[in-house]
Design a protein that fits this description.
The complex is a heterodimer.
Chain A: E1 2-9, E2 14-19, H1 25-40, E3 49-51, H2 53-56, E4 61-67, E5 70-76, H3 82-100, H4 105-110, H5 112-122, E6 123-124, E7 127-128, H6 133-143
Antiparallel strand pairs in A: 1-2, 1-5, 3-4, 4-5, 6-7
Chain B: H1 2-19, H2 28-39, H3 43-61, H4 68-83, H5 92-98, H6 104-117, H7 126-136, H8 141-154, H9 160-170, H10 176-192, H11 194-197, H12 201-207, H13 213-229, H14 238-249, H15 265-279, H16 283-299, H17 305-320, H18 325-340, H19 344-360, H20 369-376, H21 381-393, H22 400-413, H23 417-434, H24 438-452, H25 458-470, H26 477-494, H27 502-515, H28 524-537, H29 542-561, H30 570-580, H31 585-599, H32 602-608, H33 628-636, H34 645-658, H35 661-669, H36 689-695, H37 699-711, H38 728-736, H39 753-774, H40 790-800, H41 804-817, H42 858-868, H43 870-874, H44 879-892, H45 896-910, H46 923-926
Helix pairs in contact in B: 1-2, 2-3, 3-4, 4-6, 5-6, 6-8, 7-8, 7-9, 8-10, 9-10, 10-13, 13-15, 14-15, 14-16, 15-17, 16-17, 17-18, 17-19, 18-19, 19-21, 20-21, 22-23, 22-24, 23-24, 23-39, 24-26, 25-27, 26-27, 27-28, 27-29, 28-29, 29-31, 29-32, 31-38, 34-35, 37-38, 42-44, 42-45
Classes of the chains: A alpha+beta, B mainly alpha.
Chain lengths: 145, 927
């Protein structure tokens, strides 16, 4: 399952933090910080996975992708496919891109509500529900009609 | 920083322009807030800005009649503030209120805020349950969806029953979006509390045949988790799942499920994961899968990321289920491709896949040695760690030295305690199991202690001390004493380094105490001086002091026994003086013991603290036979014979029956207070147990002090001697036991693993050394490239060692020797696969032509049965039953030839892959 979805900028400011497990706000902050330190030191060509046993418990991994000023991070356990999630991040970003027409960091800050709706259409309760970008755009537009 | 701020400013300009569009635009204030936070030069400034924002929100949110749109914005700002790490709990109630709103967007915003703010046990949840219940019944499917999303986050075990009936109802909702989300919500409940939804398993399986594939794929997520918990109830689904996978692979799902032209990759991956679980250790189920797995290996596109994701998953499934040699061969090829890739992600997956493969075919690691070494030396930490993982799995006696060296090097360079602990425990495990020599083992342990220090469990220290004490466990005393003096030498060297961890110092103290002066090259004064230095580096460490005092005691005793006089150096004297008044009773006791020992005469000392006897067995005379003469003389003098507790109870019972006076008094005995023990002068007391017993004052006393001896543990860390036992008789008595030195307790340790490990490690050691001398260096027959550095080749040779034949034989021999040793990681667990010759019964055929596909594909047969009778296809008879019976029907099916023909017809007619949702999609499958 997916334990959390985080979007943060390259300075470590969280832009979206969604946890699918109950965690106290303090713990959430700590996780965001730890994830950021884990990622910021990694070079561009390194692999997109980081083992996160210490942050999230045994067997968990961070799968992340770096776009311009943002990191998109999915925290997963062994029930998900690392490479698959990498493509799911792509789906997420592509969807945001088609909704916001050339998405940038501030779109995500100001349209928090909408970004969350997009994510809710893709991931629900820690499970992937939809992977088709067009379908997601369709249902999000339906909601915001 | 300034660059990104510029970027942000630019986009803010764009945002302002967009702001006028209304719906998306947030208010100017929010823009301002984000902008100022973005420009904040320090954390403190940011803090100030956010606190000011919180104050203003607090004020405004409580104003009467805030317009609903405005309120929504306030709440979003609260979410933003909380995401930055500040408390926004004052606004939670307003978010809860917003969920009651009739406007869908506002309601959704309310739900969103609530799911982000509250966890499932928050008090406010109770106020939302009612709203959720109402929304689940709403006519507007979007409202239903919003409520279902909220349910996943907000409902806890106690509140599940409140919403469960509505959600079960939604499983049959006309919109597939709602059905899908209802499945997800139920899945969530299963994770929370499996018992609440266990009665719904049939309903889940029914949804597997939903006419919309997206609902089916939602069910797969739930199935995976359920099967993870218990495989048994789902075994019958194998045939259906295989056929779904087959359809996906053959591109028979609607086009909208394609991702980058790969057919339904996410469905494929999930199914492969499920099949891996179902096929584990189940030959029949696995054989069902071989066909489709072979198909996937052939069809998947290895140039795209998602194609590789499927391939990897397939390899993973193949290594979990019952072995099929030919498919494993293909899996190995794919793994090779991953490892050779330049893409770090694929390398990572390749290393992982290789780790799975070598469990079944250990020899396949050899082909990839250079790729593995490349990964090991990669600057990417994730890759390096994964590779160390792999090396750990393939460690054998012949490569343990190189691998352990790598691991030690790795932990030396990281600061992360978590991984330090984990990897050092692996180093210890490998060293214990495969150590080529004791010398090497001690060196390795010293390194681990030095680097990981107090992260290492105490047991490891004890094992190390025991190893030094016991040596090779054979009669070769010379080798043992050489080992010990080299250990002493090594430790004296290590002591020169600053800041050693306590646990290493403990080991050092013990070794110096036991063997410091054994080979005569160091004087007692020198060793005692060193011991005092150890204490000086860690003044507050009582446990360490305990080790040091015992060590000094032993050295003084050895010297005295050898007829020398020991002059304590001033530091030592002051150290000892201090301990007389120590707060630790354990330390006090030790120092009094020390004092007492020093006053004894030479012979007594030699018998209570003999040289090099730490691993002699202690024989506890349970019958107390040495007391016999004392007892006899006491009986002769008219004492009453001793009665055990039980006997006395029995007597008590008899008393009432036979009113026996004697018995009455004997039962009374138990309540008598013990006499005050008389404390003899320490020096006067004779020390060996047998002597002491004759001096004993009365029976009680003997009894109690004997108990003290046999129960009190003298291991330094367990100071089980309580205050009341701090009597000098007891103390001396303990020393009186010839070999009752602290560490002698270790062999009594109930965990015998270390025992066997030791035996095996020494055995392994010999083997390895003999092999090292005889084995030729690795011949590089498979190395592709010429310009590989000699160093790497050397490393490869030492890692992957000699060829498979040899490595196979050796570990097997080793395994026999250490029957009790636990896992043997590189050993195949499933029946070994004969490599080249394909077994005749192999179900898999990789050649593509249709007629060769085994005609026992149950679902195809079912499909054509149904497609012949078109009325059956549209009839609404129970779908589930048919699916679940698919397997049975198949075996009863018509002749393979006919069915194959019909099958191909049905494929052309029934299932043309078309865009959009095909309502008949699974009809050909399930009727």
């Amino acid at each position: 399952m997916i334990d959390a979805v985080l979007v943060m900028n390259t300075q470590g400011k969280p832009r979206l933090a969604k946890f699918y497990k109950s965690l106290s706000p303090v713990k959430q902050q700590e996780i965001v910080r730890k994830v950021y330190t884990g990622l910021s030191s990694r070079a561009e060509h390194f692999c997109n996975f980081v083992e996160a046993d210490e942050i999230f418990g045994a067997g968990t991994k961070l799968v992340y992708k770096h776009f311009a000023t943002l990191y998109f991070v999915f925290v997963i356990d062994s029930g998900e496919s690392e490479l698959g999630i990498l493509d799911l991040i792509q789906v997420f970003v592509e969807t945001l891109d088609s909704i916001f027409k050339n998405v940038c960091e501030l779109d995500i800050v100001f349209n928090f509500n909408k970004v969350n709706t997009v994510l809710d259409e893709i991931v629900m309760g820690g499970q992937v529900v939809e992977t088709n970008s067009t379908e997601i755009v369709k249902s999000v537009q339906e909601i915001f009609k | 920083m300034s660059f990104t701020t510029m970027e942000q400013l630019k986009t803010i300009g764009r945002e302002l322009a967009m702001g006028s569009q209304g719906v998306w635009g947030s208010s100017k204030e929010f823009l301002e807030l984000v902008k100022t936070i973005g420009e904040a030069k320090s954390k403190a400034e940011e803090e100030r800005i956010v606190l000011a924002e919180i104050e203003s929100l607090k004020r405004r949110i409580q104003e009467p009649d805030v317009p609903r749109k405005k309120m929504k914005e306030y709440i979003m700002r609260l979410v933003y503030v909380e995401m930055l790490g500040h408390d926004a709990s004052f606004g939670y109630i307003h978010a809860v209120k917003m969920t009651h709103d009739d406007n869908l967007l506002l309601k959704r915003s309310g739900y969103l805020a609530v799911t982000l703010f509250l966890n499932e046990d928050h008090d406010l949840i109770i106020l939302i349950i009612n709203t959720i219940q109402k929304d689940l019944k709403s006519d507007n499917y979007l409202v239903c969806c919003a409520a279902l999303t909220a349910v996943c986050r907000l409902i806890n075990e106690e509140t599940i029953p409140a919403v469960l009936p509505q959600i079960v109802e939604l499983l049959n909702h006309q919109k597939e979006l709602v059905r899908k989300k209802a499945v997800m919500a139920l899945h969530r409940f299963f994770q929370r509390s499996p018992s609440t939804v266990s009665h719904l398993f049939p309903a889940f399986q029914e949804r597997l045949c939903d006419r919309d594939p997206s609902v089916m794929s939602a069910v797969l997520c739930a199935l995976y988790d359920m099967i993870l918990v218990n495989v048994k109830p789902f075994k019958h689904l194998v045939a259906s799942l295989v056929s779904i996978l087959k359809q996906a692979v053959e591109h028979r799902l609607p086009k909208s499920y394609d991702y980058h032209r790969t057919p339904a990759p996410f469905v494929q991956i999930k199914l492969l994961k499920i099949l891996a679980l179902l096929g584990t250790g189940d030959k029949a189920a696995s054989e069902n899968m071989f066909n489709v797995l072979g198909d996937i290996l052939k069809r998947s596109d290895s140039t795209s990321n998602i194609g590789n994701a499927i391939l990897y998953e397939c390899v993973r499934t193949l290594t979990s289920i019952y072995t099929n040699p030919r498919l494993l061969q293909n899996a190995a090829e794919i793994t090779a491709k991953f490892l050779k890739s330049d893409n770090h992600n694929l390398k990572y997956m390749g290393i992982d896949a290789l780790g799975r493969l070598i469990k079944i075919t250990p020899e396949c690691a050899e082909n990839h040695q250079l790729a593995v070494i490349d990964c090991l030396e990669d600057p990417d930490d994730t890759l390096k760690r994964k590779t160390l993982d792999l090396l750990y799995k393939m460690t054998k006696a012949n490569n343990v030295e190189v691998i352990v060296e790598r691991m030690v090097e790795y932990i030396r360079n990281i600061s992360d305690n978590h991984y330090k602990t984990e990897i050092s425990s692996r180093v210890i495990e490998l060293a214990e199991r495969y150590a080529p020599s004791n010398q090497w083992f001690i060196q390795t342990m010293n390194q681990v202690f030095e680097i990981a220090g107090d992260l290492v469990p105490q047991k490891v220290a004890h094992d190390l001390m025991r190893l030094i004490a016991e040596g090779a466990g054979e009669e070769d005393e010379d080798a043992d004493s050489h080992l010990r003096s080299s250990a002493v030498q090594a430790y004296l060297q290590i002591l020169k380094e600053p800041k050693l961890p306590s646990i290493l110092l403990q080991v050092i103290s013990w070794v110096l105490g036991e063997y410091g002066i054994a080979d005569g090259s160091h004087s007692a004064e020198f060793i005692i001086g060193k011991l005092c230095d150890i204490v000086a580096t860690r003044p507050g460490d009582d446990k360490l002091k305990g080790y040091v005092v015992s060590a000094i005691t032993k050295i003084c005793a050895f010297e005295k026994a050898a007829g020398q006089t020991v002059d304590l150096i001033p530091e030592c004297v002051s150290f000892i003086e201090e301990l007389y008044a120590s707060h630790s009773t354990d330390l006090q006791q030790r120092i009094y013991e020390f004092h007492a020992v020093l006053k004894l005469d030479r012979d007594t000392i030699a018998s209570i603290l003999p040289m090099d006897a730490s691993c002699e067995d202690i024989e506890v005379d349970k019958d107390l036979s040495f007391l016999n003469s004392f007892v006899e003389s006491a009986l002769a003098n008219g004492s009453r014979p001793y009665l055990s507790d039980n006997e006395r109870r029995g007597m008590g019972a008899m008393t009432t029956l036979a009113s026996n006076n004697d018995a009455g008094t004997s039962s009374l005995l138990r309540f008598q207070p013990y006499e005050k023990p008389s404390i003899p002068e320490p020096a006067a007391a004779l020390v060996t147990a047998s002597h002491y017993s004759q001096d004993a004052i009365d029976q009680h006393d003997i009894y109690s002090s004997t108990i003290t001896v046999s129960t009190s543990s003298r291991a330094p860390e367990s100071s089980s001697n309580d205050g009341t036992r701090l009597k000098l008789e007891g103390v001396q008595k303990k020393w009186g036991r010839p070999t009752y030195t602290p560490e002698a307790q270790v062999p009594k340790n109930p965990i015998n693993i270390s025992d066997s490990v030791k035996v095996s490690s020494s055995a392994a050691g010999k083997e390895a050394s003999s092999r090292n001398s005889s084995a030729p260096p690795y011949t590089e027959r498979k190395q592709p490239s010429q310009e590989i550095s000699a160093e790497k080749k050397k490393l490869a040779a030492s890692l992957f060692g000699s060829k498979a034949g040899e490595t196979k034989a050796k570990p097997a021999a080793k395994l026999q020797q250490n029957g009790t040793s636990k896992k043997a990681p590189a050993k195949p667990t499933s029946p070994p696969a004969p490599a080249p010759a394909p077994p005749p019964a192999d179900l898999l055929d990789l050649s593509d032509s249709l007629p060769q596909i085994p005609s026992v594909d149950p679902v195809d047969q079912l499909a054509d049965l149904i497609s012949v009778d078109s009325s059956a296809a549209t009839s609404t008879t129970s779908l589930v039953e048919q699916v679940l019976d698919a397997g049975k029907v198949a075996t009863k099916g018509p002749s393979p030839q006919a069915s194959l023909q019909k099958d191909s017809v049905s494929r052309q007619v029934g299932v043309t892959p078309s865009g959009g949702t095909n309502p008949d999609l699974f009809k050909d499958l399930f009727g």
